[in-house]
Amino acid sequence: MQVVLVGFMGVGKTTIGRILAKELGLPFMDMDRELVNRIGMPIKDLFEQSGEEAFRLEETKLLAELRSYEGVISTGGGIATRPENVELLLQFETVVFLHASFSVVNYRINKNKRRARPLAEGDVGELKKLFFDRKVSYEKVATFRQNTNHKPLKKITAEIREKLQGQEC
Ligand SMILES: Nc1ncnc2c1ncn2[C@@H]1O[C@H](COP(=O)(O)OP(=O)(O)O)[C@@H](O)[C@H]1O
Ligand SMILES: O=C(O)C1=C[C@@H](OP(=O)(O)O)[C@@H](O)[C@H](O)C1
Ligand SMILES: [Mg+2]
């Protein structure tokens, strides 16, 4: 089984992916964590040293490698912005679009500063624009959507599992 989680920064991809994988008894891959291991530095440092494009190239390479990965994959929030990633994502068994309101993701990003997100460091207006601009690309690749606003994590993963089961029938 392949389950890929997409959605904006702070929507809960990493947190939910880890729990969902455990509940389904599947391996878990957080793409950002894997990329940090591979490039040997925090994402923020790569952005500063080599630019965002260098990160995007590594991200696409990893996504292509994961095409036959059996498990739960948490992507980074920018995954659906490149057309080549959209093509790849459409080939995975199930892609879940996690969504929440802008105020919720903005709150979560701010309380979670330690995990540096270079694209969230600027003006809140820019972040909001990115939030709305990216929505359409997540929709394009999604098999189904899952709301993560004001809900306990276990309830979110239970709802995803129910939708996954519904798909099998
Ligand atoms: N359903 C939720 N309710 C409350 N806090 C959440 C929820 N999902 C995620 N969080 C918190 O929001 C922050 C961002 O979550 P994270 O999983 O890193 O998001 P993403 O990988 O989508 O950027 C973390 O501090 C996490 O604990
Ligand atoms: O939205 C983005 O472009 C990014 C989101 C981050 O992942 P999360 O969505 O897990 O924060 C990380 O991949 C990188 O900072 C770029
Ligand atoms: Mg994450």
Automatic annotation (TrEMBL):
Its EC number is 2.7.1.71. One of its GO terms (biological process) is aromatic amino acid family biosynthetic process. The keyword Ribosomal protein does not apply. Its main location: cytoplasm. Pathway: Metabolic intermediate biosynthesis; chorismate biosynthesis; chorismate from D-erythrose 4-phosphate and phosphoenolpyruvate: step 5/7. Substrate binds at residues 32, 56, 77, 134. It catalyses: shikimate + ATP = 3-phosphoshikimate + ADP + H(+). Keywords: Amino-acid biosynthesis, Aromatic amino acid biosynthesis, ATP-binding, Cytoplasm, Kinase, Magnesium, Metal-binding, Nucleotide-binding, Transferase. Gene3D superfamilies: P-loop containing nucleotide triphosphate hydrolases. GO terms for cellular component: cytosol. ATP binds at residues 10-15, 117. One of its GO terms (molecular function) is shikimate kinase activity. Belongs to the shikimate kinase family. Monomer. This is Shikimate kinase. It comes from Vagococcus coleopterorum. The gene is aroK.
